[in-house]
Amino acid sequence: MAWKDVCVRGKPAGGKVRQDDVNKGDPPSQHNAGGPSPGILIFIDEVVRIPPPWQWPQKPSDFPSASCRIDTYPGKGKSDVHFEGRAADVFLDYTDSDGKRWGDWLFDWCVDNCKIYQIQGVIFGDRQWFSETKRGVVFARDAKDHYDHVHIELNGDGAATGQPA
After folding, report:
1. Where are the alpha helices (DSSP H) in the chain?
2. SS3 154
3. What pLDDT score does 163 carry?
4. Residues 54-85: pLDDT tens digits?
5. Which of 75, 94, 100, 119 could bond 147 through an S-S bridge, CB–CB 3.0 to 4.6 Å?
6. Could you tell me the residue ranges of all domains in the chain?
7. pTM here?
């Protein structure tokens, strides 16, 4: 199935646009994008697979671009940013020194360059950042569910357009 645009649009990176913009009464099928969005695929190609066009912070020369596992669709839930095709999990191990260094770079790059790909949230290890929080504030987290991957999610505009801002 090709990607189906199910995104909520019109909110720039920096606005309040997490999965909680899904109406609780909506049937899950309304949020099934059927695959990863154009925006998340471009982000994966341009940031994870090759050196990003915006080089700050600079990508580590030994980043495992070709070999790291990336999951996009469908995610775990029926009202989930993965299910809407607008999120990716880049598997890097927070408990390994290289994995932590690579994941920290990806996390920091996403926060510093959030407006380029309209990134609305990033989680890795004990850090999380969402665009509706005060710019530049990274919050500590206790959950251990993001210690094996960096979670990146785009807002509706970034997912649907597939074009860097």
Report:
1. 38-43, 97-112, 114-117, 156-161
2. strand
3. 64
4. 778 999 999 999 999 999 988 776 667 888 89
5. 94
6. 36-56+66-161
7. 0.85
